[in-house]
Specification:
Two copies of one chain form a homodimer. Chain A contains ten helices and no strands. The first copy, chain A, has about 210 residues and is mainly α. In chain A, helix 6 (about 90-105) packs parallel to helix 9. At the A-B interface, helix 7, helix 8, helix 9 and helix 10 of A face helix 6, helix 7, helix 8, helix 9 and helix 10 of B.
Chain lengths: ~210, ~210
């Protein structure tokens, strides 16, 4: 198996085995490196020194810095995180928005995810891994909308993918694009607005021709 | 006056004069360079060659690549763009969302603004200029909400700054963070959701204690 295969096929990693432990140690070193130097300053040598894993092993299994960063993202996506389940749509969306605020509104918590977002501008492969990470993460979040439909809080047919993105987007937008302050009030306002739009049926499919209005 | 002053004080530029023409020519070269090489690949030498402005002049007036990029952003902010005025809140917000979609949903139109966003991760000064650009741009957009309040389409006290950001954020988010496709349908869904939330009063200030719910 080539280094490329090993880095991109999580199925080849035996959970709990030596391979998985090495992968986690290397991942930790990559995250520390991203936090301290950003993607442009990250080197295989740095990861080798910090992780204690030999440079030749890193090159063989991950290929290069891109491989190391994308595998760290892949590993982040293998966690057991589930979206909040507070019993109401309003509560779930508020909890989701507050999670984003807790991360991106906190300078030290924001460092690593921001470094991944920055790295994606410089590496197509990292951009692909970031896309996969968020796609899968938001797919988990859709349970929030499905439960709301079952409870009669949201109209059947509500676009769950759009709803969960709309709750996060204004916070990400301020944190990494317009670079404005976040805060719990903003998180609550954002989730409140999306909840109101869901109730009003604004996330139902547009009737034919309606969008031309 | 130092090069730093010249680069950061637009008031010193005589509109239509030789200084203004040089600034525009240099700006064009910076935008071409960002589009072709991105921020990491942009050099003062490249801008000199493409603009025909001597390297020593560039160093004297703009200092370095950071100075060139931030001045290009400052100049972009000096345009006469005004937000759409269609006569309805729904129409104005839809037109705003479609403008974002026209830019970030089009690969070639997206290159330069995306390069500015990417550069802001590598340069504090560019991040500051990007912040100023968007702050001022969204301040112009607030007229859309003010007119809606005057027409009775939005409750008085509606948070105009939040509304105009909520209309753009899901499109920016997909374009530069989750890297998902945009489209006119998505733009219309986004603006429709924000319009519904405005009508429901979701952008009014929270009552004391309400956000703790």
């Amino acid at each position: 198996m080539s280094a490329e295969d090993a880095a991109t096929s999580p199925g080849t990693v035996r959970p709990g085995g030596r391979t998985a432990r090495t992968r986690a140690v290397v991942r930790d070193a990559v995250l520390t490196g991203l936090a301290e130097h950003g993607y442009p300053g990250l080197t295989v040598e740095y990861v080798a020194e910090l992780s204690g894993v030999h440079k030749t092993t890193l090159y063989r299994r991950w290929g290069n810095v891109e491989g190391l960063v994308t595998d760290a993202l892949d590993l982040a996506g293998e966690d057991t995180w589930t979206p909040p389940d507070t019993g109401t749509l309003d509560g779930d969306l508020r909890a989701l928005a507050r999670e984003v605020n807790d991360t991106f509104g906190d300078t030290s918590a924001a460092v690593v995810p921001t470094a991944f977002i920055a790295a994606a501008f410089q590496s197509e492969r990292t951009a692909g891994a970031l896309h996969s990470f968020y796609t899968e993460r938001f797919a988990r979040c859709e349970a929030v909308v499905e439960r709301a439909v079952e409870r009669g809080e949201a109209p059947p047919g509500t676009d769950a993918a759009a709803v969960v993105r709309a709750v996060s987007a204004p916070l990400f937008f301020r944190a990494v694009i317009t670079r404005e302050p976040l805060g719990e009030e903003l998180a609550d306002q954002t989730s409140g607005a999306v909840t109101a739009a869901v109730r009003a049926g604004a996330y139902l499919p547009a009737a034919p021709g309606e969008s031309a209005g």
